[in-house]
Amino acid sequence: MRKADRLFQIVQILRRTARPITADAIAEELETSKRSVYRDIAALIGQRVPIRGEAGIGYVLEGGFDLPPLMLTADEIDAVALGAHWVAGHADPALARAARDVLAKIENVLPEELRPFIADPTARTAPAWDRYEDGLDAAQLRAQIRAARKLRIGYADESSAVTERTVWPLMIGYLDARRILIGWCELRGDYRSFRLDRIREAEFLDDPIPGRPAQMRAEWLRRVRREASAT
Known about the structure:
The protein is an alpha+beta fold. It has 3 domains: 3-61, Orthogonal Bundle (Arc Repressor Mutant, subunit A), CATH 1.10.10.10; 74-119, no CATH class; 138-230, Roll (SH3 type barrels). The protein is built from 8 helices and 7 strands. The strands form 2 sheets. A 5-stranded antiparallel beta sheet has the order 6-5-4-3-7, sandwiched between helices. A two-stranded antiparallel sheet has the order 1-2. A hairpin with a 3-residue loop joins strand 1 and strand 2 (58-61).
């Protein structure tokens, strides 16, 4: 790997890592020596890249620094294209349109020689699911999640029995070819997931969620990982 590429990759590693990362870990990912990492870090600091490090702890990239957003490798373009094409084929109409817009914007500003990687990526998504009707406006649901406000729904179980729930909506997920709402259910006093096609009615409330949604999402993810590791 050329030195310039290695310097760029070190900055990328630091950008995506919230906690300090050691020279050993960077060297392992880049398949180079720890001594080379030390030299590269010194070179980056010499170029006024705001890297802070402490012996035995690791390096962090301080805020306020960024690289041009479209310095992408072919693999990174494939990753973006794969994700956007998947969303375009599986998300609700508003999000699918946004995914196509993202691809068009990226393709428009990429260098000419890189545009084919967006138009014809090497990674492909599966065909879109059969369409089904959500029981509420998914775009409005995303806005409700961002606003951290409650939602009242009529939800049908497998036998079509409907219960009224007040939910603290946290995120929209994709499972078993269905879109689902993940949130805290006041009726059950716990996290629950709700298939959007089983929601019979929905009322978007002005009541704020009592708590920090980001922390709740992190707690839910930790619980899912613990359950997965236990099986």
